[in-house]
Design brief:
It contains 6 helices and 18 strands. It has about 325 residues and is of the alpha/beta class. The chain starts with a strand and ends with a helix. The structure holds flavin-adenine dinucleotide.
Amino acid sequence: MGRVVSSYGILVIMLDLIIIGGGPGGVAAGVYASRKRLKTELITKEWGGQSVVSPDIQNWVGTISISGNDFADMLKKHLEAYKDDTLTVTANTLVSKVEKSEHGFTVTLQNGETRETKAVLVTSGSTRRKLVVKGADTFDQKGLTYCASCDGPLFSGQDVAVVGGGNAGFETAAQLLAYTKSVTLLHRGAAFDKADPVTIEKVLSHANMTAILNAEPTEVIGDKFVTGVRYKDTVTGEEKELAATGVFVEIGLVPNTGFVTGLLELDEYKRIIIDPWTQQTSVPGIWAAGDCTNIKYHQNNISSGDAVRALEDIYIHLRAK
Ligand SMILES: Cc1cc2nc3c(=O)[nH]c(=O)nc-3n(C[C@H](O)[C@H](O)[C@H](O)COP(=O)(O)OP(=O)(O)OC[C@H]3O[C@@H](n4cnc5c(N)ncnc54)[C@H](O)[C@@H]3O)c2cc1C
């Protein structure tokens, strides 16, 4: 492991790379980093990432079906198989800050410990913005879902609702129209001004599609599983009810990027801006991949692929002389 004498004369261990996050992105990068013999530490709060709550992941390539918990376990085991003097793993720990230092970067953990590293890869993902209405927690994963690509096919031939009138809402509706009986999109705004006109037009032209403006969800209803959504017409104040066996929520992502605020360039949604050719951020020496970045699509396979791309570039950066 590299050593650096700091300005205070203290010997500091200098890592090649710190990977932040133990979802599909971080773990993929960790496996590649270890095989390339980069002195790496992966630091994560939890294993598996966002789809850990999913009862059944059916699109992780090479695996027909796996629960979110088993997926997390599988990622952890794959990474831990490479644990040795070049790869260390610190789990159950949040990174609270990344700063530039004399020879690279200082990464501070929530418990106050610090690390020095030449390069950083941020794969801290995001959290789906939750629907905060009565019944939303009760029916989460019981008909209410935040991922159409993952759960949509379970609702084949059924009447479903989409909450959210941005691009994500319309793209979700487009996916669902391929196999559901009907899709009703609820948008709280007075116009569809947050989605591309071409997408809106295409989706609304479908015979089984309905979109309702000025519709503010107030409750998700059901017994064991979802049976519908209650919403308020924000113009008339009238409470209405829509029958649906599935409710797909697409009201935005909250990226986990607080620890690089002020250091990296972020977009209007606080996602890390990357160069999609290399995954480099606005600060040389820091890369980012997956759901914490300003990419359009969010899937496990995409995050791991992006993180591998980042790792290849990091390797060139650290080793090519
Ligand atoms: C309910 C649901 C179901 C889904 N199902 C599927 C599916 O079936 N198939 C599919 O392809 N995609 C699915 N997705 C999307 C998929 O989960 C994401 O695209 C994917 O998890 C993104 O991976 P990531 O590695 O970029 O980030 P994440 O999965 O978000 O992982 C981020 C990691 O970083 C850690 N972390 C965050 N902040 C810090 C910090 N400050 N310090 C240290 N660690 C930190 C977290 O603990 C986590 O381990 C689903 C999403 C949701 C919400």
